[in-house]
Structures are given as C-alpha cells and as structure tokens.
Amino acid sequence: MMHSVNPATGETFASHEPLDEQGIESALALAEEQATKWRLTSMDERTQLLSAIADRFDAHRDGLAEMATKEMGKHIREARAEVEKCGTALRYFAEHGPAMLEPEKIPGGKGELRWLPIGPVLAVMPWNFPYWQVIRFLTPTVLAGNVGLLKHASNVQGVGKLIADMVIEAGGPEGLFQNLAIPSGPVAGIIKDDRIRAATLTGSEPAGRAVAEVAGGALKKVVLELGGSDPFIVMPSADMDDAVETAVKARLQNSGQSCICGKRMIAHADIYDEFAERFTEALCSKRAGDPFDEESDIGPLSSEEQRQTVLDQLDKAKKAGGQLTGAEKPDGEGAYLHPGLLTGLDPAGEMRDEEVFGPVAMLFEAKDVDDAIRIANITPYGLGSAVFTSDADEQEAFITGLDAGMTAINQMTASTPEAPFGGVKNSGHGRELARFGLHEFMNLKSVFRAD
Questions:
Q1: What is the largest CA-CA distance in the chain?
Q2: Spatial CB neighbours of 37, under 8 Å, sequence gap ≥ 6
Q3: Mean pLDDT in the chain?
Q4: Most buried of 50, 63, 287, 329 (most Cβ within 10 A)?
Q5: For 361-400, what is each residue's pLDDT tens digit?
Q6: Is position 261 annotated as part of the catalytic site?
Q7: Are 197 and 220 in contact (CB under 8 A)?
Q8: Residue 330: C-alpha distances to residues 6, 121, 287, 357 (Å)
C-alpha cells in the first residue's frame, strides 16, 4: 500500500492500492494497442488535446495546488505557480511544436528527414515538482505520437491520478497516458518488456544508474536527469543587491528541494566578506512554516525521512570542519527545517559529492575566475550553474569553462519550455523541453526518393 502523508502534520490522508501483475499487464497491453492508433492521428488532433489539457490545469489550479501542498509540502504559492507553468508549457508546444516536427530536405534534393513516433515510453518521476516534471514528459509524448506510462513517486499518487484523469477529461483516449500506481520494484521488468520502447527518469543518481543498467541491457534508450550541486558564483562587478536576493531565492525554491537550486555559493575574495554577511543575514531570516499560510517563507520538507537525511548531511559536514549557521529544527509536528548556511568546508572535501536537498547552502571563497571555475567543476555533478558578473569577458569564461548543461548569467537557473533542460557528468544525459526534448524519443527516419 502506498500512502499520502501530509509532511506538515504527519497525517496519512489517503492510501493507494498498487497494481498487481495483472494490472501492470493490462496497462502494457492497453499502451501497445493505443500506440498503434495515436501514431496515426493528425497534428491538429494532438495539439488540440494539449490545449484542452492546459484548460483543465487553468480551471482547476487551486485544487491541483492544494493536492501538491498536502502530499509533499510545497508552499501553496509555489504550488499554484507550478500548476500555471504546466498550462504555459502545454500551450507553448501546442503552438510551436508542429514546426519542430516538419520534414527536412536532405541536401541535394534526394529525399527528406522525418520525425516519427516510437511507441510506449515509461517515465519514472519524482515528488519535488509533481506536476511540472510529468508535464515535461507528457507534452512531447502526446505531440510526438507516442503513448506514456507514468511511475510517479509513491508519496504523490494523488497528483499522478489527477493528471491522468485530466487527460481523459480533455478528450484523450484510454491508454494514451496511464498513471501506474506501483512501487519501484516492478520498474525493471516494465523497462525490459518488449512493448516499452524507451524510458526517462528524473531522480537520484543511484536510481538513474539502476534504470540505465536495465535499459542498456535491453537496448532501450533513456533520458536521465539526476540532480546536481549547482554553483552560484558572485564576482566583484556584480550588482550585490540583486546577487544576494537571487541567491536566497535560488537556494530556498521549493524549500531547497530542487535539482537546479543554487547549492554551492562561490564568492570572489574581494567581495566575499560583504556577500557572506549579507547572504547569511538574508537567508537565515527566512523561516519555515505552514505551507498554506501566505505569510510563511517556505514549507516543510517532503517527509520526516527527507528532513533526517538533510540533518545527517549537516552532521557529516560539521565533522568535516564546516561551521553551521541556522538550520534549526523547530519543535512540534511537521518535517520543518529553517534555512541555514555552511561555511569553512574544503571545496574538494566529501561534501562535494553531496546534493543537499533542503534549505541549507554552502559558501566558498574564490581567488579569481579560474579558481571559481575550479571550485564549481570539482563536484561530480553538472546540471545548472549561475554567475553574477557585469564583465563580458568573465561571462564568456564562465560560459565556456563551467562543466554544466546550463549557465544563467545574472539570474537564477530555471526550466522553461523554450530551452533544453539537462546536464552532464553524474547529472545524467539527454535533454527535456524545447525541440531537443521533443526529438529524444522519436525515430529520425531518412527517406530517399528516386529522381
């Protein structure tokens, strides 16, 4: 049995019966059947469905947001914004997606290149952005002519069901998109099944390695987004007010439970003391509280287990010489943790391998541009990065020097339907969003024509 537990209160408010073997078999058979039909639909039919799903996200925004807040603790402000973002992405692809799939002439006039669907795709999705992560998969799946099966995180099964219901309510046929209420155990067998053509996972590095190993053995393509320990670099020419404000926002997004949160703050020696003082004060003045209270800064972590994971990481960091400011654990019920800051750590120490998924930042000092890049790249992850500098030469040095899938200049890293999203190194491979994400699970067919 899978349970929906409110992390703000510890209350179990819903339980979900997982599919048995027969239920999984029925879902796979339905996906295979629908795949033969949906691939033949017109582009107009696909885009109309995306627009209709977007309408339902808009119409039910508040109720959808409340479910996310109850299931994983996301502050209600951020939950509403996430739901709205889903509608925006669905409409973006409905409007611009067809042009991304237009045939392309082969040089010399000998034929063309076609983007064609491949069939059923399995998505293993996390709890931290329970709507947005799924829409990043569902949208290109529908537009490409594929069908999708979702294995959502066990603690957000309510969200998974709501999404699947909205697809049906919007006019999507049975089997186009199915929410598989299953734990992680059956995932390997589903990936190996010949009816599944590819898989995508957003989650932890160990989970990604496990899925990649199974998919590789079955010769299935995968897209993996496995998190990161993103650098947030501040140079002397930066607008300090903007840098401090954005650094706090970046670290506390989703209570610090975002793969592209700025996690390792790196300040140039010339402005290190000023940045450290202002950032510490601004960060530690924020407080965790009731996620339904508009006045609270952040909500709880997603579970008591997740809070304990972060507390264990902080203990490890202190044993390695780190000094911790803030990060108090409030008394009472709920998986709350106030924001905090770690300083004094060796950038090359054990914490470089850790992704702290909570409202605690690490701060390091860099001597110059090259040293900042060295510290930034020392982690095994390479998802996002952010740099605050008004110097054009420095900007170019960071763009080319940072080993990451994304670099934001004078702003925080964010995902948007217009730009490809993904990383390098242990942050995974492949891309979501934009035309690159749309093409990941399609057959690029070369068509040759005789004169």
A1: 78
A2: 173
A3: 97
A4: 50
A5: 999 999 999 999 999 999 999 999 999 999 999 999 999 9
A6: no
A7: yes
A8: 17, 43, 10, 18
What's the rounded Cα separation, in Å, for the pair 279 and 245?
Answer: 8
CA 358 to CA 255: how far, in whole Å?
6
Are the CB atoms for 289 and 314 separated by under 8 Å? no
Does domain 2-226+427-448 match CATH 3.40.605.10?
yes
> Please, where in the chain does CATH 3.40.605.10 lie?
2-226+427-448
Determine contact, residues 178/196, Cβ cutoff 8 Å.
no
Q: Is 237 exposed, middle or buried (0-12, 13-18, 19+ CB in 10 A)?
A: middle
d(CA 172, CA 436): 24
Unique residue bearing structure tokens 């730009």 = 419
Catalytic residue among 259, 261, 394, 432: 259
Candidates 82, 205, 225, 365; catalytic one: 225
Claim: this prediction has a pTM higher than 0.90:
yes
| Residue 225 appears among annotated catalytic residues | yes
- The reported pLDDT for the residue numbered 108 is 84
Pair of tokens at residue 23: 């239920």
Which is nearest to 166 in space by CA: 70, 34, 50, 65? 50
Query: 30 vs 37, 54, 149, CA distance in Å?
Result: 11, 24, 10
Written out in words, the top-level CATH class of the domain with range 230-416 is alpha beta
Distance CA 162, CA 176 (A): 15
| Strand, coil or helix: 367 | coil
* Residue at 89: amino acid letter: A
CA separation for the pair 185, 291 (Å, rounded): 32
**Residues 6+ positions from 119 with CB-CB distance below 8 Å:** 32, 35, 39, 146, 147, 195, 197
- Paired tokens of 362: 């690490």
Q: In what order do the strands lie in the sheet with 386-388?
A: 323-326, 340-343, 360-366, 262-268, 230-234, 386-388, 408-409
Start and end residues for every CATH 3.40.309.10 domain found in the chain: 230-416
Distance CA 212, CA 210 (A): 6
Give 218's DSSP letter. T
The predicted-structure confidence for 410-430, as pLDDT tens digits, reads as follows 999 999 999 999 999 999 999
